[in-house]
Each structure stands twice: as structure tokens, then as C-alpha cells.
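Backbone Fold Data
Goal — C-alpha cells
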Amino acid sequence: MKSLSWTVEIRARVNARLQAFFAEKRRIVSRLAPPSCELIDEIADLTLRGGKRLRPITLFVGFRSASPEGDPEDTLEASIALELLQTYLLIHDDWMDQDERRRNGPTIHAKLEKIRGNKHLGGCLSVVAGDLACGYAWEAINQAPFRQERKREALQEFATMHQDIVLGQHLDLISHQEIERMYDLKSGSYTVRGPLKLGAILGDATREQLEILNDLSRPIGIAFQLRDDLLSAFGKGEKLGKPVGNDLRAGKHTLLVSEAMKLMSAGQKRAFERVLGNKEATDDDVAQALGLLVDCGAKQTIEQRIGALSQEARQRISESPLSPQGVALLLQLIDLMLARDY
């Protein structure tokens, strides 16, 4: 993998801008409703205590694909908008899943429940915190320095991305059978497609460049989520920032699980189903279920699917009319997203 040192600078710039943003919001809220500063503090804590800043990095790649000489400072407001949108999604998602750990710390609903001594109130306050983070995301994207004639296009892209995430979440919650469609909507939209296109619009991309970025985002986005599924199953808890095996205990309808159910023998399936969706499953139970995912070949099948999607994206990039710098950065972005280890 080529050096990704350029991503370090992006993370530093985005973190500094987020810190300044939250400081200003706390000053405003402390005058309007001092008790509500707890919402700002919780949003800021979750946003700043972790995260790889993949979406700002992806946005920068989209920007460079269209504008090799553009000023990187132009990407900052759109970058923090993506991070704030993710914080809103994480807060609500953690509450829906009743997860208690995120980024090596307590989830917001779990923390507020403990502070307030009331489970329902903690959940309600976390939903309100998520709503506030969402509002801040829209404020930030509206402040991004898009060319005036393209601002409506950029805001529409942000709205489409937001819509796609919600639709994908709905498909996830109802365990819809078209899992890759759900992945493309829920994860691919705001991890790859939206950031790439917003960055390109900031760089005043041509229509052809936007179409190329839109097309190649699907295989990258699906492969990213498949890698995330493998990490959630086989990764290390300290690297994930949350307990390993939670997806199995929650009965998540991932493609990994779907493939396993096709490949397992009747006996393996019975043993696996004793863990899937069982919130009381022990760590040993989970370990045995993960072993079955390996033994039946499901893990290898997903690895092969990731490889095929990666190759599809790389082929499209190599044939694209994007800037040479953009092509090089896109290939590195695929490495960054898909070469994550366990």
C-alpha cells in the first residue's frame, strides 16, 4: 500500500475545525438554555473521541478528482457536516440496537440513562441529541463554499444522501432480503457516494466526472460494508471500540450470515441459530458460532466478494476521465477502506 500520510493532515484539520465548531455552539447554547449544554458535550465527546474521518478523506478525494490544484480549506465545512451527520446516525443507531459501547466509551443513551437514573429519559435525550447533531450537519453543509450556481445541486446531493441512509436503515430493520441494496443505501451512500460527489461538486466537477464517481461508489461502498461485517465478527474489541459478536447476538441479517445459512449443514445451522439473535449468548457461544462461519466457508465467500468488488472499482477508475491525481487517490482510498485488518 502506498503512503497514506496525506490522510493524517486531513484528520488533523477536520478535528481542529470540529473542536472550534463545538466551542462556538456551546457558547451559544449556554446563553439560550444552559442545561442543554449537556447535549453539546455528549455530541462533541462522541464525535471527537474516535472515528477514522473516512468520510472527510473520501470527500477530499472527490475534490481532488475534479480540482487537482484547489485549496483543501474549501473542503472543511462539508467535511464536518459529514462527521456531524455520522454522529447523529450513530446516536440513533446505538439507541435502536441498545448498544452500550461505541468508540471505546459509553453510547450516549447509556451514559445519559446513568446520569439521569432513568432508562426512558436517557433514550429520549439521546434521540434529541441525535436530532441536534443532524441540524448542525445541515447548518455546516449550507456554509460550505460551493459555487453559487452549484449550491442547490450540492444541497440536493446531501438531501439524497440523507434519504438513502434512512431508507437503508429501514431495510436493515425489517431484514430485507436484498442485502447488497441495503448496504448501498445505508453505508455506501454516506461513506462513499455522497462524500465523493460533494467533494467533486466543490471542485466544480463536470457532469461526466460526477457520473463516474457515482458509478464506482457502489462497488466500493458495498465492499466497505462487507469488510465492516467481517471486522465486527472477527475483529479485536479494542480496535472496534465495541464488543465483538454484537451483530450475532442482535441477530443482524448480514450477507455473512445469509451466505452461512446457505452453506451450513443441518447440524451446523442448528448450532449457529442457538447464538444468532440470542442476547444472552456467552463469549464462548459466540466464539463457536464464529468458528462455524469459517468452517462452512462463509467467511471466505465474503472475502472473495470483497475482492471482486474491489477489482470492479479499480477497473472503472483506471478507465475514467478523472484527474491523474484523483485516480491515484481513489486507488489509495480503496486500500484504506478495504485493507483493514482484524
Q: What stands out?
A: The chain is about 75% helix and 0% strand. The first helix runs from residue 5 to 32. The longest strand covers residues 101-102. The beta strands are 101-102, 105-106.
